[in-house]
Amino acid sequence: MSIFKLIDAEKANYPVAMLCRMLGVSKSGYYAWRGRPPSKRRRQDALLIEKIREVHNRSRETYGYPRVHAELRSLGVRCGRRRVARLMRVAGLRGCRRGKKRRTTRRDPRAAPAPDLLGRDFVAGRPNRVWLADITYVPTREGFLYLAFILDTHPRRVVGWSMDSHMRTELVVDALEMVVWRRKSSAGLVHHSDRGVQYTAISFGKRLEEVGIVPSMGMNSQ
Questions:
Q1: What is the rounded CA–CA span in Å between residue 37 and residue 35?
Q2: 3.90.226.10, 3.40.50.720, 3.40.1190.20, 3.30.420.10: CATH of 130-217
Q3: Assuming Cys at both sites, which of 59, 127, 129, 217 could form a disulfide with 63, CB separation 3.0 to 4.6 Å?
Q4: pTM (two decimals)
């Protein structure tokens, strides 16, 4: 920061004359600095900040400076990544930060998983023959949102889901309850998942048994 910028920033707290005297500059020099029009670089920065705001707003405030820079380049705006990063800091613009990758599959070494009845053959001749289940997550401003879903392999359509801030067994049970309520399970219907603790839990296995669904577990869900 220049001496004159410092004086301008502090003039609400201290007299200009005192600040100039303490910093060894003249009052006339300070007022001459204030009367100057913005430099070409500052005018260009102001215009670029407006373009950056437009790109950032279109991204729903999710883009950080690398993606904002790439978007500007695609629009024909020539500028450096460091400049975009600096101007975003000045404007108080930030993208969504990605944390470490979350593990959604945690195995219970004491549990006995169901056998793999599909052998990676995820094709069914009609609906309600094979349901594929999995858990994923979505980063949000308030933390991670976990999503359990069930996919019917015949129309390749999600038929049940559940969302919450945790990955306890209730998450997958709720997804199962939705699809059982929405659809009738046919005899021999297979529910295929990975071997995560949610799917090997006794309570989940009992619920599958109650509604007549056969469990199947592979190393990785599809």
A1: 7
A2: 3.30.420.10
A3: 59
A4: 0.54
